[in-house]
Design goal:
By secondary structure, the chain is α/β, with parallel strands linked by helices. The protein has one domain (5-128): Rossmann fold. The protein is 47% helix and 20% strand. It has 5 helices and 5 strands; from the N terminus they run E-H-E-H-E-H-E-H-E-H. The protein has helices spanning 13-27, 39-51, 70-80, 95-105, 117-128, and strands at residues 5-9, 32-36, 56-61, 85-90, 109-112. A 5-stranded parallel β-sheet has the order 2-1-3-4-5, sandwiched between helices. Helix 3 links the parallel strand 3 and strand 4. Helix 3 (70-80) packs parallel to helix 4 (95-105). The longest helix is centred in the first third of the chain and has 15 residues, at 13-27.
């Protein structure tokens, strides 16, 4: 059986690299850490993994990205994969977008950039404990 996936979505490669480094250091090889640079790539990756029988269990998404914004991405994902834990990580989300994600995507938490690694890991652990 394949390991579950934690997916990070951000249009800045340095953010994706930083997240994956922190996750791997904290959780080791318990999960597969994937990254996508925009919402379309993330949706394609989730669908491809699902077809291969690999579950995405948690998503950390930026809000302000080209094309589809993070709240809309999480709402779309929630419609097809309601059990995925969803975290918004942003420096620029407005309250309306966060509220919409909470109501329509069952948003676990919204964290601000720059993030505290300890707070991020605590948030992920609390999300994973719901599974």
């Amino acid at each position: 059986m394949s390991k579950p996936v934690i997916l990070c979505v951000d249009d800045e490669r340095i953010v994706l690299d930083s997240l994956r480094t922190q996750l791997a250091a904290a959780f080791g090889d318990a999960y597969i850490y994937e990254g996508a640079e925009d919402a379309e790539e993330a949706l394609d990756l989730i669908n491809d993994l699902n077809e291969e029988g690999i579950s995405v269990i948690l998503i950390i998404s930026d809000w302000l990205m080209p094309g589809i914004r993070g709240d809309e991405l999480l709402i779309q994902i929630h419609k097809n994969y309601p059990n995925v834990i969803k975290i918004l990580l942003t420096g620029q989300a407005d309250e309306v977008a966060i509220d919409r994600a909470q109501k329509q995507a069952n948003l676990h938490r919204c964290l601000s950039k720059p993030w505290s690694e300890a707070h991020l890991l605590e948030t992920i652990k609390s999300g994973l404990s719901k599974l």
